[in-house]
Amino acid sequence: MLDFLRQEGVSETIVREIEDFRAKWPTAGSLSHRIPSPRYLYYGKDIWEEAVTALLCGENLLLVGPKATGKNVLAENLAAAFGRPSWDVSLYINTDAATLLGTDTFADGAVSLRKGPICQCAEAGGFGILDEINMAKNESLAVLHATLDFRRIIDMPGYDRIQLHDATRFIATMNYGYAGTRELNEALASRFVVIDMPAITSEGLVKLLTREFPDLRPAYAEQFAGLFQDIQKKCDGGELSTKPLDLRGLVAAVRLMRAGLEGNRALELGIVNKSFDDFEKQLVSDVIRARLPEVLTGADVFV
Ligand SMILES: Nc1ncnc2c1ncn2[C@@H]1O[C@H](COP(=O)(O)OP(=O)(O)OP(=O)(O)O)[C@@H](O)[C@H]1O
Ligand SMILES: [Mg+2]
């Protein structure tokens, strides 16, 4: 992972500091299964530098951005880079203090605390990923205020107070303004430093596609990255909604091509049909047609 950061051009000083952090807080063997081995790598040197520096300074991170901008990939990559066990907590409307912190349980005739993910993460020096934080109710998240600020504690009525391990950090993700999300309370937001996640660069996308599909012809890696940029531009210009701007869909389409589906049909499934509006579908098809031939076989695209 650290070699990857160097390849990406992350400053050597920062990489060294990650090494120091890892040396200072080695993870107990019993938790090593919680250290992620990432399926995808995050491409974007500036974001890496910002995120790593913030975590080194002891800050918690809030990653904000539209769908498929790599928020979860980055969060997972960060835990891997720092060599920390991680806990993934998906927040939703019914998330409450008990889901986060723990519940009373009976064992040997006595009441004890069955620790929830936040408590476990806090004690183990883990990286806690608070996924889709703005799906939860602010009132439920208020129990985390003392955990996320300088106090670094969890104080549950009836139990001992838990002091956070020095290596514990929290990384929250959110899409802003999507259906089902709420406005994040200012007091909560103030406990994070916020990174506005950019869309992947063309260069990053070519790397992603090439790593994911080693037999993809370089010319087509460029074409697909170009197609993504074309759609991006139309979105920025207001001609298209963000529905067809879907990196997951593009990767899925290439995977379908790999499995033998004709290219345009694959792109229809992965991208075009993400808009449910006939007029917009036609516009997206036109963008594809401007770049790619009418029939695209596996032999064209892969070596
Ligand atoms: N900068 C990037 N570097 C590497 N992969 C990226 C990048 N941006 C997006 N991706 C790819 O996009 C896909 C989605 O990533 P991820 O699940 O992290 O997105 P997300 O931002 O959490 O999306 P959502 O808001 O929908 O949950 C992955 O396949 C990931 O590899
Ligand atoms: Mg996500």
What does this structure look like?
There is one protein chain. The protein is α/β, with parallel strands linked by helices and 303 residues long. The chain has 2 domains: 2-196, Rossmann fold, CATH 3.40.50.300; 202-301. The protein is built from 15 helices and 9 strands. The two termini are 29 Å apart. The model has no long low-confidence stretch (mean pLDDT 95). Magnesium ion is lined by residues 71-72, 173.
Number of helices: 15
CATH-scheme architecture of the largest domain: 3-Layer(aba) Sandwich
Strand order of the largest sheet: 2-5-8-1-9
What do we call the CATH topology of the largest domain? Rossmann fold
- Helical residue percent band: 40-55%
Question: Which characteristics define this entry?
Answer:
303 residues; Rossmann fold; binds magnesium ion; two-stranded antiparallel ribbon; 9 strands; alpha/beta; globular
How do the strands and helices of this protein lay out in sequence?
Blueprint: H1 2-8, H2 12-24, H3 45-56, E1 61-64, H4 71-82, E2 86-90, H5 97-101, E3 102-107, E4 110-115, H6 117-124, E5 127-131, H7 138-141, H8 145-148, E6 153-154, E7 162-163, E8 169-174, H9 186-189, E9 193-196, H10 202-212, H11 218-236, H12 247-258, H13 263-270, H14 278-289, H15 298-301
Parallel strand pairs: 1-8, 1-9, 2-5, 5-8
Antiparallel strand pairs: 3-4, 6-7
Helix pairs in contact: 2-3, 10-11, 12-13
The protein binds adenosine-5'-triphosphate (ATP) and magnesium ion (MG).
